[in-house]
Amino acid sequence: MHIPPHDNQNKPIVDVDHDLVPLNYFNIVKLKKGEVFDYQVAGYETCIVPATGSVDVDVDGASYPRLGNRGVDVWDGEPEGVYVPVGARVRIKCVSDMTETFIAGAKYDKVLEPFDVREAELDVIQYGSDDTKTHRKIKHILGTKYADKVGRLLVSELFTVGAGGWSGFPSHKHDTDRTDDAGEIIETRHDETYNFRFRPNYGSGVQMLQRVDNEVGEAYHIMDGSTILLDSGYHPCAALPGYEMYYFTILGGLSQRSLKQYFQPTHAEQIHTIPGILDMVAKFK
Question: Where residue 197 sits, what CATH number does that domain have?
Fold first, then answer.
């Protein structure tokens, strides 16, 4: 599902128990200096990540001052985040001239402890190659490093390295919890939500969605600010030549946090042609 760019007026773009991706929650909050935004989400753990600007965050009395250091866009600095437990009362206050702040969430039923992730604590991996048109960098905010502190939520930012190129390839899916005959997990159910940005911001790209291997699928024209909701199917995306692409990524697992991707059989052999892709897969845990 494609949700075109729009002014969401600080209201959730993906609210609780969404019909398509019930395991996800997503909001974009825009504030000017001194303005505040309060929220509380029952049944979902969340993560606050300023896309631009800086905010002070209070989580049930725990203070995390001056979160975020980015300027004009997501390329202008490094991400930072605050993990928010299920049902916690949160206040976000803008302390820069303005901010655009992402709130990512995943359904969960236990209450954990809040914590912050600063620039020096990010887990960054770069993989792919220019030759294969798959050169990418992922900045994990809530990745494998925090597996023992988070319930089901995975949060990361993906950047194409250079202009144009593909992401999410070889095509994979993660829409069913299943094991092989030996009981080994071969795929997990994780709902996924993306929010895209392009540099320059008039760039665009395409999000493919193929529900069944070797059958005709769907494609969405994505622009700066597009939101994509993925409940099933193989889902690579691409940026037009001459444009850099970024997408904020939210994953919420049904039965576990660790993501097990199932690669599309038609293209699975290309796993071995893309440098570093197996290292990339290992970070979504």
Answer: 2.60.120.10
